[in-house]
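Question (not urgent): is this output format expected?
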Amino acid sequence: MTDVLKCPKCSMEHVYFDGTSYVCPDCFYEWSGEETVGNSIVKDSNGAELQDGDAVTVIKDLKVKGSSMVIKRGTKVKSIRLTDNPEEVDCKIDGSNIVLKTCFLKK
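Got this back:
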């Protein structure tokens, strides 16, 4: 059974690929294929589902690449933002925007 590709804007099924992006002839919306893959579930190290705005705790001391900063185990991170990659979340720690792997976080 094949999945029918639908337009993310109008939900019509008459979508075609023009070589660089998908096009809906009904509403003229164009998008890359990444939006159709979405809806993946993001989970923390314990298997709990993460969502935008959740508060999480770091479970291991992490060295930040390109910096002398170390994120200590037990650091609480508020208001995470999910990224396109289900294995990473974007957050702000000590005023710096940092991307963390979900395998080092718990809800």
